[in-house]
User: Fold this.
Amino acid sequence: MSTNIADMTDQELADLIEAAREALAHRQSLEAVRGQMGDAIKQARASGVLEAPEEGADYVAPYDATELCVAGDVRTHNGQAWVLQRGACVGPPSEANGWVQTD
Assistant:
């Protein structure tokens, strides 16, 4: 398959469009799930079912889903403070994982 869309056949273009639609749907589904998980964890924290970590605490990989970081959480990682900007996250603070440095 050509990498230049002008050189692609109609079928190659159709296949590319379908692959892009599937990739977008997958990405959007993951973001929706992260948002729902983050909301559930925030509600559980607010009701006292789960304990909210101290703001700025060192990042520790979660043991299970109840320990996920959620949007608004602030963690320290490699000496830098980070705030999570989206849903819920299992990975360490990084821009790729939806975190933004606060320092």
Remarks:
- The beta strands are 57-58, 69-70, 74-77, 80-84, 88-89, 99-101.
- The chain has a mean pLDDT of 90.
- The helical segments are 10-46.
- The first strand starts at residue 57 and ends at 58.
